[in-house]
């Protein structure tokens, strides 16, 4: 994830809790909060992006036990239960899923560009030729 950041010194805090769901299924509740410095896709400068992730993950034995209806249900997320869970990888994946595809400031200029330049129509030359032809 470091290649998405302008400054690796961001701050992230997380909490991971286990619980049983309404149908007695094992679940993980993941909360992530913090701020990351992403690169603005327009001006290439840093932009502080607030991270606030709330994920409820149902643990399943394997993906084959899921029905097509469960897979297509966007309101639920599933995670295959393992003996050991790489929590750092899980957190990183959830943050990446939360990031905007093209982070941008509300208003900024392109690198090396000038914001308030009057646009000249390529047809303005034709207008001047029209006056000479008559």
Q: What is this structure, in a nutshell?
A:
This protein has 134 residues and is an alpha+beta fold.
Shape estimate: elongated
Major β-sheet profile: 4 strands, mixed
Uncertain ranges: none
What percent of the residues sit in helical stretches (DSSP H or I)? 10-25%
First and last CA, distance: 64 Å
The arrangement of helices and strands along the chain is: EEEHEHH
Discrete helix count: 3
Task: Evaluate the radius of gyration.
Answer: 25 Å
Structural class, by secondary structure, is alpha+beta
Q: Calculate the mean pLDDT score and round it.
A: 81
How are the strands ordered across the major sheet? 1-2-3-4
**Number of E-state strands:** 4
User: What is the chains' assembly state?
Assistant: single chain
Percentage of residues in DSSP E strands: 35-45%
Describe this structure in words.
With 134 residues, the protein is of the alpha+beta class. Helices cover 20% and strands 37% of the residues. It has a four-stranded mixed beta sheet. Helix 1 (68-72) links the parallel strand 3 (46-60) and strand 4. The longest helix has 12 residues, at 87-98. It starts with a strand and ends with a helix.
């Amino acid at each position: 994830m470091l290649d998405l950041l302008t400054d690796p010194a961001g701050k992230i805090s997380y909490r991971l809790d286990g619980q049983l769901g309404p149908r007695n299924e094992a679940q993980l509740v993941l909360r992530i909060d913090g701020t990351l410095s992403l690169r603005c896709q327009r001006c290439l400068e840093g932009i502080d992006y607030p991270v606030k992730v709330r994920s409820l993950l149902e643990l399943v034995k394997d993906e084959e036990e899921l029905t097509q209806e469960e897979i297509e249900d966007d309101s639920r997320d599933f995670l295959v239960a393992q003996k050991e869970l790489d929590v750092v990888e899980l957190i990183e994946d959830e943050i990446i899923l939360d990031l905007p595809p093209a982070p941008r400031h509300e208003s900024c200029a392109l690198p090396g560009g000038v914001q308030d330049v009057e646009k000249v129509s390529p047809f303005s030359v034709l207008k001047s030729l029209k006056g000479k032809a008559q």
